[in-house]
Amino acid sequence: MRIFDPHIHMTSRTTDDYERMYQAGVRAVVEPAFWLGQPRTSPGTFADYFDGLLGWEPYRAAQFGIVHHCAIALNPKEANDPRLRPVLDLLPRYLAKDHVVAVGEVGYDDITPAEDEALTRQLALAIEHDLPVLVHTPHRDKAVGTRRTLDVVRESGLPPERVLVDHLNEMTVGMVADSGCWMGFSVYPDTKMDEDRMITILKEYGPARILVNSAADWGRSDPLKTRAVADAMLASGFSEAEVETVLWDNPAAFYGQSGRLDLSEATAGEDYAGNSVLRGAPRD
Amino acid sequence: MTTPHLPGFVLSEEGARWLAASTERIRTDDRALAALFPLAGRACGRAPIPGFPGWTVDQAVRVELLRALSRTGAPLGETIFELYAHGDAAERLAVLKALPVLAACNRLGDAGLPIVRDALRTNDARLVRAALGPYAAEHLPDHAYRQAVLKCVFIGVPLGAVTGLDRRADEELARMMADYARERLLAGREVPPDVWPLVERHPAVLTGIRSLLTEAGHLN
């Protein structure tokens, strides 16, 4: 079984996680730019973070046989800090990079005017750089935030098939399904979605346009939740082809719209894990 | 269009057209480089170049883009450092590989050293390896060169990839390598084989760890 986790914050995870993910079948990930738990206070720390997403993190992932791409954006939470407005001016230079396959995460957190402006500007950047967009939906007041997100996306002129609306649940999946956007579900140990509810939604909506991610980060989360959903799908009667649709084909198709998704290393076969020059190099 | 720094390598027709148009734009206005540099892989490809081990198409094309800059000396160094600092890993690799090419036209002098030093501070073996090419062999001061070679042994970059060892490996480097070997032997760990050729060039240094090597079964 091969798995593409379309939303995971590997910067916050250890090499143990990479090893376990590989063993579970994860061969590709997309890491969207988000906040780091501790609010940042200057644009320079964003540049360093973006550089890490384009340099160190894909290098680290490759050591464990996992292909790493990223999405770049000013996240909604930090969009509220006026000191970080200049991050929006840094974005064009990063959105030109080979391994950037989307603008993201953008969206709403507190649903403020500052978030409105950052979202609108970044949707315009996505059109300009011909990239799809990963949209975060808020934890609080989720239904209202999601409805408003869909309105703003529609007004932006971005075609719905270029937009993935993430962190959906039973209350928000319907409106996103109707919009034509891709539907993302984050499966967490305690919050957001769990495996059983995910199966119920998959049974109702079918596997088309649905993506499942672990959204694992520095909080309580589990990078193997994608595999847990795959196992739950098989146990509840979905075919292997349907599992592959949700956990590989859909993320590959969505991010593939960037024209920059390169999965050749992930599909080169099992040899990859053994032939890295760097694996097993002496390290203390 | 061929790439003069890799004689005989010819780009695809489409790639050559892109490169010709791009170098022309850079010659007209240096500032075009920042937007063109990240596009090289998408425009021209990223395959390895037959006959030039270690080179890929995107690297060769990016080196040509840098050669189109009209600046020299410190201003050239600042321009390419800025490009390197904003680059992803592939762009950084290309800037590092361009250093000896730019220096060969007698245009760069020591002004590329900040880039080499930055790459040597990373923990990315690809960048460390690329940093230790002919430019570093020529320009890096002794202490930094020795530290860089020792770092290669630490992170698993084969010393066969390091330029200038024949000329620059001195007794102090042999001493550092021997100390590293001693540390490994005392911990019951293997010593990377690349250590020995450097140590053996200085018999006095080798003598110092002979008893440990005998115990570990490396010498009889």
What do these coordinates show?
The complex is a heterodimer of chains A (284) and B (220). Chain A has helices at 15-24, 43-54, 56-63, 76-79, 87-95, 113-128, 142-156, 173-179, 195-205, 225-235, 240-256, 271-274; strands at residues 3-5, 26-32, 67-72, 100-107, 133-136, 163-165, 182-186, 210-213. Chain A is of the alpha/beta class. In chain A, strands 1-2-3-4-5-6-7-8 form an eight-stranded parallel beta sheet, sandwiched between helices. Chain B has helices spanning 13-28, 33-36, 40-44, 57-67, 73-85, 89-104, 113-121, 125-131, 134-139, 142-155, 165-168, 171-186, 195-200, 203-208, 210-215. Chain B contains 15 helices and no strands. In chain B, helix 4 (57-67) crosses helix 6, helix 6 (89-104) runs parallel beside helix 8 and helix 10 (142-155) runs parallel beside helix 12. Chain B has 220 residues and is mainly alpha-helical. At the A-B interface, helix 3 of A face helix 6 of B.
In short:
The complex is a heterodimer of chains A (284) and B (220). Helices cover 44% and strands 14% of the residues of chain A.
* Mean pLDDT across all amino acids of chain B: 92
User: In sequence order, what are the helices and strands of chain A, one letter per element?
Assistant: EHEHHEHHEHEHEHEHEHHH
Number of helices of chain A: 12
Point out poorly predicted stretches of chain B: none
Counted beta strands of chain A? 8
Whole-angstrom Rg of chain B: 20 Å
Write down the Rg of chain A. Answer: 18 Å
> How much is the average pLDDT of chain A?
92
H and E order of chain B = HHHHHHHHHHHHHHH
Describe the global form of chain A: globular
CATH class of chain A, named: Alpha Beta
Q: Structural class, judged by helices and strands of chain B? A: mainly alpha
The quaternary state of the protein chains shown equals: heterodimer
Number of strands of chain B: 0
CATH architecture of chain A: Alpha-Beta Barrel
